[in-house]
Amino acid sequence: MEEKKMQVVHLQMVRDDPRETARLVQMRPTYVQVVSIGAIDYCTAPIPELFKAALLSNVPNILSSHNHPSGDCTYSQEDVLLTEKVLQAG
Question: Is-above-0.70 flag for pTM?
Fold first, then answer.
């Protein structure tokens, strides 16, 4: 049986420094997936869905983002909890 190597998925949380996010997105994406589209004030992002696309696409890294339609980019408690769950799952 042929030995197969598995790539390690790298998850990096970027906070408060848009320059770091800009540096990360300068890489050429191999796959783009919309995981969830919410309402005007709420959006769910199921953790398995975040990773399913990455795993099925055989990508070594993911960059996850969302917007704040209100224009207020202050982290909500839900943002923090979701980020923690994504980090734990990764």
Answer: no
Exposed / middle / buried, residue 50 (Cβ in 10 Å: 0-12, 13-18, 19+): buried
Triad 47, 22, 41: Cα angle to 5°: 45
Q: Is 32 inside any structural domain?
A: yes
Q: Is there a contact between 26 and 46 (Cβ–Cβ < 8 Å)?
A: no
pLDDT under 50 in the chain at which residues? none
Torsion of CA 9, 76, 31, 59, to 10 degrees: 0
Give the domain range for residue 66: 18-89
Contacts of 28 (CB under 8 A, 6+ apart): none
**Is residue 5 in some structural domain?**
no
Measured in whole angstroms, the distance separating CA 2 from the mean position of its chain's CA atoms is 32
